[in-house]
Specification:
Order of helices and strands of chain A: HHHHHHHHH
Number of helices of chain A: 9
Oligomer: homotetramer
Shape of chain A: elongated
Largest sheet of chain A: none
Helix content of chain A: over 70%
Chain lengths: 198, 198, 198, 198
DNA sequence: CCCTAAACGAGACGGTACGTCCGGTCTTGAC
DNA sequence: GTCAAGACCGGACGTACCGTCTCGTTTAGGG
């Protein structure tokens, strides 16, 4: 008897347990760090049986991921500031990103999330669809506005533009390969805008 | 007497064991992946006592890291090709990087190494010093040659230049956020050179 | 309001479910053995909700016990053979008992039942009343007949007599402390009859 | 890789752990009863890793069994009292057995042991060899003495004699099928001696 | 004939324990 | 004193069941 694992019925899922698990996960990542996070501890903190976690998530990584999804659910309709000055606007956004990376409260969980995504292609796909996608779309919308204003080339590849802007920040932060300062953000913006000029 | 762990005498270290451990580590990362790599398995595969691993390395990550150091020992004196055409040279190098990332043989170990570095600031420092540093220096040397040839601005920040070039590739690869093609490498080079023009 | 568990109404009990549960129990004891018997498995096999089991039985042991009661319902009016020769009759009955103990079909369930009874005084009481009692009464009736025929002492303690006869068989079987052969049964009968002679 | 479970080296076994485990087992059986005894609890109480238990014992039952072996190690050379009066001596011994069965301190562990033996043929074999065997030999020695004294038949089957004596007590105790009194023990002895008379 | 209340199947839930794996420490005997 | 070997304590893993608790869905009188 190969014990066919019947799949659970989502309509009967306990929302209370789901919330408790995601909240416990977020708390524990902040408290003990991602490396020492255990399903056992999540279940205990959430007042939940371990099976309830394994029933609804494939892996610890999936729980971690979901705990972030929930955090940033309101981001969807988000739009970036548009003062008409693409350079100023980008620098503001990039400096905010730098500040977020520097904030020790965010540092640990975001790092956990990124390690999880880097390890698991499935989560990476979900990440792009649910988290990165909408945010990137908002950013590209701002770049399109700049295209219309003639501030960057009309035929610029906006996906590439985004990567030229953010990847250097991301890499410095993830690998700690250099100081992550507002000035650095500014320098990146200056260079990339130069590359994108009409 | 509180067992003061006298530190081992490196002169008596068994080179044979060291090699066996590093080799077993490389093999196992390729075979079972980084997530399922265990000290136990390394010791068994290497025909070595676990203590011998713990005696000489702080953590599993340190072993993984060292297993790469050994791999790339000959890289030190390396210089990049210099045909006089910075654009062609950069595209060649970047396309090689893309190919390396795409090679399934390298994929797993490099990913393991990067996860380890992202998790452990100490290893990150070692990484910069021992691995990234020399390679980056060679790359910067090529850029300096281009500066002298007037192909890129004399006052360009070469560290930044390197990051603008490599970070987009790195990010796409690590997060699987898009296709990693030679054309993509070319596009990045084109943009960055534009930003760096005198 | 502390959920007073109103007790179920037996008149509305589903006979179909009851039968399915008892049958599934018997099957599973034979198939996987008593130690690995689980309420979950019984419910699944019987196509029944777990609650239906817990509604009508106190414990797994109670189900096991009941599954035997049902098996041996027709035994009540049973009478032992009476050829007039107590020795021959007893030997026949005892040999039959030996055969039953040796039959692998009966072995597992009977053992399960005995372990359950040995663990739970309540079940033991039920066992005496519902199963052992009637059977013992039939056996004692045969002994009384022998008393009237002057084959065993008129003042013999028949309960003790039964125990002298059956306990040695039972012990050998339960603890596997020796071979359980027809000859052994005969020897026991011979000795006990000698002890009971007028 | 079928993970060949290499067998442990008994010469390196920790005697301290072994003792702690057996002692914890005895304590827990007395405290919480056999049904609620868990390997987890034994390990915790003994201050031992669970693996250390699973390394040296096949099952929980085997641990329980061993914890009894250790208890009764001094019994080996034991000899029964021999006043020359077999009836008096047997009654004394049987009454002692009755008392032991009645003692609530012994009740739980002995019952646990018997359930374990009844469930597991391997343990049953060990039981006969290590525990029951020596004790039975002492009892048979006393019976042989009675044979020499002409109190019981010279050709009596002493194994059978032992079973006729003890099985009724054992059965009454295990199944709680009747009161276990000194008088009952006496009655059994009287009958069995009558059956064994020369 | 419908209404309603109970029993029912299904199975999610909070838990406990399972038996396994591995981390990191400690011990033994060979070299 | 390092080494291979591996026992040890501890703790987390992912699974199996426990007994309880909803969920709709039958089902069977009583109105």
């Amino acid at each position: 008897m190969p014990s066919v694992p019947r799949k659970p019925d989502p309509t009967r899922r306990s929302e209370r347990s789901r919330q408790a698990i995601l909240e416990a996960t977020r708390e524990l990542i902040s408290e003990v760090g991602y490396a020492k996070l255990s399903v056992e501890a999540i279940a205990a903190r959430a007042g939940v049986g371990k099976q309830t976690i394994y029933r609804w998530w494939r892996s610890k990584g999936a729980v971690v991921f979901d705990s972030f999804l929930t955090l940033s659910e309101g981001v969807d309709g988000m739009a970036l500031p548009d003062t008409g000055d693409i350079e100023a606007d980008l620098k503001a956004v990039m400096r905010a990103t730098v500040a977020e990376f520097a904030d020790p409260t965010f540092e640990a969980p975001i790092r956990a999330l990124n390690l999880e995504i880097a390890s698991d292609p499935d989560l990476a796909a979900q990440y792009r669809e649910k988290l990165a996608g909408p945010v990137d779309e908002a950013k590209k919308e701002r770049l399109r506005s700049a295209q219309r204003a003639g501030q960057i080339a009309a035929d610029a590849d906006l996906d590439l533009a985004l990567e030229l802007l953010y990847a250097p920040l991301y890499q410095r932060w993830l690998l700690r390969s250099g100081p992550l300062t507002p000035e650095y953000a500014d320098a990146v913006v200056d260079h990339v805008l130069r590359a994108l000029r009409p």
